[in-house]
Structure formats: structure tokens, C-alpha cells
Amino acid sequence: QVQLVESGGKLVQAGGSLRLSCVASGRTFSTYGMGWFRQAPGTEREFAAAINRNGGITSYANSVKGRFTISRDNAKNTVYLQMNSLKPEDTAVYYCAASPSGPLSTAQLAHEYPYWGQGTQVTVSS
Q1: Which of 34, 45, 47, 88 is the most exposed place for a label (fewest CB within 10 A)?
Q2: What is the pLDDT of residue 101?
């Protein structure tokens, strides 16, 4: 089992940048694929980005491709989401999640992730 704690969310102006961090507990972080999801008020949680166990494979939602970058540091049990060129429509609670998937997997469906953090609020003002 793994516990996840996100940080880094805040209010930022459109066009700005932000980096989210998610620290995992336990000694098995490198055995999990990691993902970032987001949920705006009144909407369903949606996939943003995912990274496989060793960080060599990534995938992105079309809405964030080219602007967001997911990365991980297995020595620090941490996954990051670098967000550039932020837009007001990026406003949401951002969640990191862990999936005990295969070594090459970058899962994009929420039900593939049994472990979730509590979320961090990102607000982008226009």
C-alpha cells in the first residue's frame, strides 16, 4: 500500500507556470505507475498525465499536451507535474494517483489507480 501527499497548488495568473509535487510513502514507489488527474467543480475527474515505473514512458491528455510535463524521482519517492502556459480552464483540484500496473504502463483511467492523494487546488485567473 502507498500513501500520497500532493503540494504546490496555488493561485496563478493565466500564462504562468506551476509545479506540483506528490510524495509517496513506503519503499515500493518504483513499482507503481503514477498519474495526475484533475477535477473542476461540477465535472468528473479527468486524466491529465501519467508516467511509467522508471520514468521512461509518459502520456498526456490532449488538453495539456505540450504544456504539462510529468516526471518522477524514484530516489525521492516523488512525482512532479510541471505546468506551463496555464489557462483558466486548467483550474481544478489536482490529484496524484498510484497504479500497480505493468512496467511499461501509463494508465489513463481512474479505476486503474487504487491509491489517491487528497488533492491540491490550482486556480488560474484570467
Answers
A1: 88
A2: 85
Rounded Cα distance between 103 and 105, Å, is 6
**Strand-strand pairing, 11-13 and 120-125:** parallel
Which single residue is written with the C-alpha cell 524514484?
74
Which set of grid coordinates corresponds to residue 10? Answer: 496555488
Specify the amino acid at residue 97. Answer: A
Report d(CA 126, CA 110) in Å as an integer: 29
**What's the confidence (pLDDT) of residue 45?**
97
Is residue 51 a contact partner of residue 70, using CB atoms and an 8 Å limit?
yes
Conformation bin of residue 15: beta by default, left when phi > 0, alpha when psi is -120 to 50: left
Tell the burial category of 34 from Cβ atoms under 10 Å away from its Cβ (0-12, 13-18, 19+): buried
